[in-house]
TrEMBL record:
NCBIfam families: transcriptional regulator NrdR (TIGR00244). Belongs to the NrdR family. Keywords: ATP-binding, DNA-binding, Nucleotide-binding, Repressor, Transcription, Transcription regulation, Zinc. Negatively regulates transcription of bacterial ribonucleotide reductase nrd genes and operons by binding to NrdR-boxes. One of its GO terms (biological process) is negative regulation of DNA-templated transcription. It comes from the Bacteria. Pfam families: ATP-cone, Zn_ribbon_NrdR. Residues 27-117 form the ATP-cone domain. Residues 126-148 are annotated as: Disordered. This is Transcriptional repressor NrdR.
Length: 148
């Protein structure tokens, strides 16, 4: 991002233009094997696009999700983040975004060894949904009761 400013010399009164650039320190990703590389938003975008393949999800929604994830990563104020932390953050966002995309991403991220670990994750998802529905039902009941 560049900021253009018109200025005036205090000595001679001549006007001139300056351009200021916001200095960004690169965000580094610590890979599983210890290597470090510069954070690339496109890697998250591509992973989510693959997870959402053949789903009725607009590119705009996907881009908004990636923006949220990147904002959360950058808001940590750390200059380094592990790829595992990024994966966990993506999964947290996908939980509420789309169930199928979440499972697809989780199957790659968690490297499900067998069908039982896959089924366990599905059961966890189902339990979370049931709890959320129960909470929603309780909130609706409270809202429907008149105050005495």
């Amino acid at each position: 991002m560049t900021i253009r400013r018109r200025r005036e010399c205090n000595a001679c009164g001549k006007r001139f233009t300056t351009y200021e650039v916001v200095e960004k320190l690169p965000l580094m990703v610590i890979k599983h094997d210890g290597r470090r590389e510069v954070f690339k938003r496109d890697k998250i975008l591509n992973g989510i696009i693959r997870s959402c393949d053949k789903r009725d999800i607009s590119m705009e929604r996907i881009l908004n999700l990636v923006n949220e994830i990147e904002r959360d990563i950058r808001n940590t104020m750390d200059r380094e983040i592990s790829s595992q932390d990024i994966g966990r953050l993506v999964m947290e966002h996908l939980k509420d975004f789309d169930d199928v995309a979440y499972i697809r991403f989780a199957s790659v991220y968690r490297k499900f060894a067998d069908i039982s670990s896959f089924l366990e994750e599905l059961q966890n998802m189902q339990q979370r949904k049931q709890r959320a529905q129960q909470e929603s039902y309780k909130d609706t009941e409270k809202a429907d009761k008149p105050d005495k």
